[in-house]
Amino acid sequence: MDILVYLMPAALFLGFLGLLGFLWSLKSSQYDDLDGAAERILYDDEDLPRR
Amino acid sequence: MSEAARETAGATEAVSVTRADPGLFVRVDAGSREAKLDLVVQSMHCAGCMRRIERALGEFDGVSFARANLSTKRVAVRWDSRRLKPAAIVEKLASIGFEAVPFDPKLIGALDESEGRKLLRAMGVAGFAAANVMLLSVSVWAGLVSDMEPETRALFYWISALIALPAIVYSAQPFYRSAFAALRNRQMNMDVPISLAVTLATSMSLVQTIVNAEHVYFDASITLLFFLLIGRYLDVQARNRACEAAQNLLGLRAIAATVIDADGSQRSLPVEALEPGMVVAVAAGARVPADGVVATGISDIDTSLVTGESLPEVVRPGAHVFAGTLNVTAPVQVTVTARDEHSLLAEIVRLMEAAEQGRSAYVRIADRAARIYAPSVHVMALTTVLFWLAMGSGFVTAVTNAIAVLIVTCPCALGLAVPVVQVVATGRLLKHGILLKAADGLERLAEVDTIVFDKTGTLTLGRPRLVDEAVSATDLSVGAALARASRHPLSRALVESAGAKPLPVLSDIHEEPGQGLEGRLGDEVVRLGSREWVGAPAFDDNVHGGPELWLRRGTARPSCFRFMDQLRPDAIETIRALKALGFSIELLSGDREPAARAAAEALGISAWRAGARPDAKIQRLKELAAEGHKVLMVGDGLNDAPALRMAHVSMSPADASDISQTAADFIFQGAKLGAVIEAVEVAKKSRRLVFENFALALAYNAVAIPLAFAGFVTPLIAAVAMSTSSITVTLNSLRLGRVRKAS
Questions:
Q1: B7, part of any domain
Q2: Is the pLDDT of residue B157 over 80?
Q3: Least enclosed by CB within 10 Å: which of B145, B301, B323, B699?
Q4: Domain count, chain B
Q5: In this structure, are B559 and B594 located in the same domain?
Q6: What does the pLDDT look like over B352-407, one tens digit per residue?
Q7: Is residue B301 part of a domain?
Q8: Phi-psi region of B300 (alpha: psi -120 to 50; beta: other; left: phi over 0)
């Protein structure tokens, strides 16, 4: 069972990365316009608005 | 006013007085000189629209950010305030076919948007912790039937505690806060048993971990929080969306006033900044921005939104005009008397406040359930302790079993039962153009047995239509030819009924405000307007009660055009359907008796009342409430606002006055009255689903509580039972959405 010593921190670390990713996406307003995001995929690259 | 606003105020005042000057809504950062503006673009509905808008704005020199939000139909623009004027942005969008209306979230009372985000963050944290704790728990459960050593189990429990404790402290805050608030007011809500169960389960698990016992419940408490946060987030989100849509509607009508200073110069001011004594110019076709007295000019004022009267009223210098009324024929100047305590608006606001106090506080179904549920759960836990102590077992066993009872009875399914139904119902209503504004609106609507309608603008479209088709074709075409020059609603209706027929050409047309029109057809003088204007006999043969127009050609006998307010296209069927559903229907109109009677007869409403002032409407609602009826009030006018507040639940069309929309619980868009049926049906179905959900949750408790009482509930059983009951309740609630697809 010694393998747990490596596996558990690894599992927790990966899960934590997922959480960080979620918090980052939340902070960068990615959930503010769900309908728009679904449609934006249809933009061609040269049409991207200036940020 | 910001500097950018001041720069543009001069440029736009001559162009438009009905639309707000976009400069008024710009927020300029003092340091970077970066200007920010939010616009509502109602006609944006696809990727193409977004792209065209963002591209058009991106072409401007100085625009640093332009982003369209398709969900909220809003566009946010940021630019260098020194290089671009806000009016140019609105004009640019107009040139590519989008009407953009500037709007300041602060002016129309924006929601706290951070609430949704906070819940989402708490949900993310709870979800992460739940997933990881569950992984460890599953290993332990597997270990219980195989060969896990107590040391490994202890290690797993300690790791679970390490993950779960901070996550619970963080993500249970919304529930603790709400539970404390309820307890402080000596009330009970669902969050009280939730908070208690989470706290007890967590602290007991911690103790068990320390003493190296066999069972811990970290997984139960954190998954419970995760499920509940999902429900709560969806609830907040659905309501935010409906409220945003409602705000957009109000923002669309943001108006600015054109103030005339003593030196004769004009400037644009937001309506809120008007002071008594200021003189404002009100163009023909514009709304009067504030209560006041006409200083110069004669015109017709359409007061239908305020009094329910369908006929425009003639005003001369010295006459009182009210905010929100429509100036129809000619420009006038109005001296503002807004601070006047006796203004109509002040009276309406007073009545609304009084009505608010009169309305009994509604207790939501979930909270009513909590009032019974929470004490009985706590009594059961206490009984468990006493029972086991009486049976002679140790204190630890007794308390452990009692806590198990609290954990399995924790109202996870109950906490989800209402929000999920609410979310599905709100979404379904939104698709039908019905906005739900009040959180408990659906529950109150489901209890309704009586529906009271206002007439003008609610049952009718508030637009007159020519009824007397007996007028000769020549009269009609001559009248319509003359009427084309006027924006009076009756003139417009006349032109409409003349259709596409070729009209004779008249010369020398001019309009005498408050009187009528005059023109020449060849040698003949033609007059169209009031009875006096054409010199018709003054005896009263006006039996139909609606407005009328008179036409005189040369010296011939004047002929009369009669008009009726047009019913909403589906008003008759809607009233019939509502009656068939068992509602009693009443009509409370502020309009004059003949008009109200005609509408009531056409719709088959036997209980009707005309000439009802706002206080009379309230009085009638009080009578109905005293008789034990739950009333749905449907109205649009300013004069309905107090009644909308007073009624058990209320609805307004989207073109209602601002105050009415604020007062109403539901807003429906579009010309059709059928929205009332849809809303009532959804409300009733939602109510049934909520009760079904309660029944499901209770059935699960009926099985789980005896097990917990007997001390058989292991963490595995608790987790399985809790998840299945939550999932059943959620699936059952989703049926409300599925009905739509089938029909």
A1: yes
A2: yes
A3: B145
A4: 4
A5: no
A6: 666 666 555 667 777 788 778 878 888 888 898 899 999 888 887 888 788 778 77
A7: yes
A8: beta
Structure tokens at B414: 């109950």
- For tokens 């040269």, name the residue: A46
Q: Is B500 exposed, middle or buried (0-12, 13-18, 19+ CB in 10 A)?
A: exposed
3-state SS string over B457-516?
HHHEEEEEEECCCCCCHHHHHHHHHHHCCCCCHHHHHHHHHHCCCCCCCCEEEEEECCCE
A contact residues 1-51, partner B, Cβ 8 Å cutoff: 1, 4, 8, 11-12, 15-16, 18-19, 22-23, 26, 31-36, 39-40, 42-43, 47, 49-51
Single out the residue in B77, B104, B131 at which a domain terminates.
B104
Between B590 and B21, name the one with better pLDDT. Answer: B590
> Quick one: pLDDT at residue B632?
93
Q: In terms of domains, do B572 and B457 share one? A: yes
Q: Who wins on pLDDT, B502 or B119? A: B119
Q: Domain ranges in chain A?
A: 4-47
User: pLDDT per residue over B540-550, tens digit each?
Assistant: 555 555 677 88
Distance (Å, whole) CA B213 – CA B159:
15
Structure confidence at residue B172 as a pLDDT band (50, 70, 90): very high
**Same domain? B502 vs B545:** yes
pLDDT of residue B12: 31
Residues B598 and B552 in one domain: no
Provide the residue range defining the domain that includes B9. Answer: 3-104
Same domain, residue pair B498 and B554: yes
pLDDT tens track for B35-65: 888 888 878 878 888 888 888 888 888 888 8
User: What is the value of ipTM here, to two decimals?
Assistant: 0.84
* Pick among B41, B45, B53, B54 to test the A interface (most A CBs inside 10 A): B54
Would residue B506 count as lying in a domain? Answer: yes
Do B573 and B678 have their domain in common? yes
> How many angstroms separate the CA of residue B45 from the nearest CA in chain A?
9
CATH number at residue B614: 3.40.50.1000
Q: Specify whether B454 is catalytic.
A: yes
SS3 B584: strand
Domain boundary among B663, B683, B703: B683
Spatial distance between the Cα atoms of B506 and B337, rounded to a whole number of angstroms = 42
Instruction: Provide the pLDDT for residue B252.
Output: 57
Quick one: tokens of B443?
Answer: 């529950």
The mean pLDDT value for B735-740 works out to 68
